[in-house]
Amino acid sequence: MVIDEKRFTELYRQYWGYVLALCRRAINNTEDAEELALLVFARKWRAIHRYDPEKAQFKTWLTTNTVNAIREYLRAPHRVSGPFDGDEDELVDASTDQQTLNNAALRSCLAKLPEDERLVLLMHDLMEFTWEEIALQTAYTVAQARTLRARARKKMRACLEAQDITVDD
Amino acid sequence: MRKLTLKRLLQEAVLEEIDTIPGPGHTVDCLGFEDARRLADGLLPLSDDIGAHLRTCAHCAKLLKAFRQTMPSTTTSQIMGHWPREMLAKLEHWVRETVAREQRECATAASFDADGALHVRLSGLAERGTVIVYLIWNDQELALTEGAVRDGTLTIDDATPQIRLTNLDIPAALLRIRPISMPV
Prior knowledge:
The structure holds 2 protein chains of 2 kinds.
Chain A: H1 5-26, H2 30-46, H3 58-75, H4 98-112, H5 115-126, H6 131-137, H7 142-161
Helix pairs in contact in A: 1-2, 1-3, 2-3, 4-7, 5-7
Chain B: H1 6-20, H2 33-40, H3 48-56, H4 58-69, H5 73-76, H6 85-101, E1 108-112, E2 118-120, E3 129-137, E4 140-150, E5 153-156, E6 168-171, E7 175-179
Antiparallel strand pairs in B: 1-2, 1-6, 3-4, 3-7, 4-5
Helix pairs in contact in B: 2-4
């Protein structure tokens, strides 16, 4: 089955939030995250003739390319690394429900992680890549990727506990 | 009581975020993906209507930028080579007029010699690696050729791109350099 432009535009609308959210969580710049998300879709449209729905779901295909784009962005020599410019210090109303509080705390803690640890944690725990897939997508060995995730989890737990949120293993 | 794991927290936080993200801003008036690609690759002429839309639609301007950043390197050196002669003549006339009008204010940064070879004299550049050299015409970027920036100096990969222009000086103000693969 060939994906035509009409269908691709539908998929673009469907997955725009997903790709943008991944980019926002992985890089420290909300403005660049939008451009990065558009870059992913532009690349996918250019390569649409190579997409085989029988081999991979569109979301999987998109996720793999999003990770590649994020890694290229993080490696770019001209990029200025700085504190997260988004919502790491979101102000939440005292009446906000617990889940919203948890989410705000999580985003804040995630933004404080080193980029390599954050990316591996997102790939494993959010995008659900296997260790072998992470090794294939990144420059890390499986052992290195496991170590990065373990460090990330330790820091996340400590950061969340400082905000009175306890998470189980 | 529900067990709260880091993984579940992470997934719920991102799901919540996805719900709050507005649509991509793509309306029925916006450029389709194929038109944006062809425009970026120089295969679709920039009409007055599209130009007017691009000036007012941030979404399409960003989409076009994304397509320019993903332009295949094999395409770039041929883009203007595919232009009809009339279009090139129009461009050439406009560049000559610009040079004549602003001669005192702008230094020549590139030129096509009598054989059609392109000579670019740009140094002190902040970009690194492979770049595309664009000519700015009517606020649009036209890909001239590819090159590489090393130690701030640009070297052109193909000194004789497939552009049929000769004896033409191009002021620095009409040139733009962009890295090929990365967002800026």
